[in-house]
Amino acid sequence: MSKLENRSEVQDIIEIDVSQDGDVCNQDELNTLYQQPYFCSARKAVGLEKLYILHVDCEWKSKKLAAALSNHSVHLTSTDTLDKISTFIAHDQTIVDVHFDPVNLNCVLTGSSDGSIRVWDIRNPEKCSQEFRDDTDQKIKPFLSFDINCNGTLLCGGTEKVKSDTHLFLWDTRSPKVLAAYSEFHEDDISHVQFHPTSPNTLASCSTDCLVNIYDLNEKDEDDALQFCLNTETTCGRLQWLGYDMKTKQESISVTTSTENVQIWDVEEASPKHIFSREKIADALRRKKSETCFAIRCFQRGEGQDPLLLAGSNTPNRGCLRMLKMSEGVLEPFAILFDEKGGNSQTIRGAAFNQVSGQVVSGGEDGIINVWMPGEVKQVASNNTRKVKTEVLSKKFGGAHGSKKPYSK
């Protein structure tokens, strides 16, 4: 068997006794291991009805947050206090992702399984200002993922497999006409697409066909556009560019698999650097049951810093949400994200990370958005009054090697 997961291996379905789940050590030991303090600075529900938060994106400069909900709407709030800005229906089918325009900060984009990607001016979101779709044969191509590049000039959408074809569609954001369509590179559903955070013509896609593809969109010919093909040997779920490592001179990308494993790949060598199994993730989280642990997404922290993995456990009333540092093939405890009111009971579906401040925003299946800030909250008495005020004691986030050129995503 290769060191990658065996694609043909099928795991038996077993019943898990979650009453025996929990941490393998006490709280004092956890606090010693997880030395970067975080606290929940805001927590709000997106509505009174039962709604899932499917995806989130943040525009950190203007302090806006967009959450895609299970009722096909988008919920807009501030990123710090979660004060509501507006809510609007964006599609009549499932929203597969949401992104802020990196150039026009008043625009948010949504993609849907209805086969469309829409642009909304959040100052007046009653009607979309632009729509992108492929209707050359009058058939709907349901999107599973989409992305906009770092300078806001290109848009890409990846589709489900329709009959025998899957498609990657590209648009110049100035025109609804399809710029290019690739249909030969994946044989199954395209689960995620992501542009490179600083190279606007570099794109990655992954699929349930186990492949991760890297494209150079400067190449006009479809065959020339494909630069690298990485065979993960397992169903792929989500990508994340991890940046260029100045020490190793390597460009890395992570992929989260359907088995809750995380693989880190050297792009140019087309080879896996590190593989973190579900068991390794559970061990790093200090959890008893690996079956309840899940990988949410990876975060790039910036130049010279190790990337982070947001992971957790969805054990009822005993869940957890934590960040692990991915350092040279080793998962190290980094931060505990604990919600005293919610107890981390919800399964997280979407999250965003601010590379400058270290702020994390998460949302999940209980319809709750949490804002997490690095630092400690200490109750101190005011000298002038008998009232108690909250003082935030922050450590400099990220250690000695701060990010000089933080990515926008």
Structure, described:
The protein has helices at 27-33, 222-225, 278-285, and strands at residues 38-45, 53-59, 64-69, 73-78, 84-89, 95-100, 107-112, 117-121, 130-132, 143-148, 154-159, 168-172, 178-182, 190-195, 202-207, 211-216, 226-231, 236-245, 250-257, 262-266, 271-276, 293-299, 308-313, 320-327, 330-336, 348-353, 360-364, 368-374, 376-381, 388-393. The chain is mostly beta strands. It has a domain at 50-295: Methylamine Dehydrogenase, Chain H, CATH 2.130.10.10. It has a four-stranded antiparallel β-sheet, with no helix packed on it. A four-stranded antiparallel β-sheet has the order 2-3-4-5, with no helix packed on it. 43% of the residues are buried. It comes from Daphnia magna. Pfam families: WD40. InterPro entries: WD40/YVTN_repeat-like_dom_sf, WD40_repeat_CS, WD40_repeat_dom_sf, WD40_rpt, WDR89. This is WD repeat-containing protein 89.
Largest sheet: number of strands, sense, barrel closure: 4 strands, antiparallel
How does CATH name the architecture of the domain at 50-295?
A: 7 Propeller
Q: What structural class results from the helix and strand content?
A: mainly beta
What's the number of helices?
Answer: 3
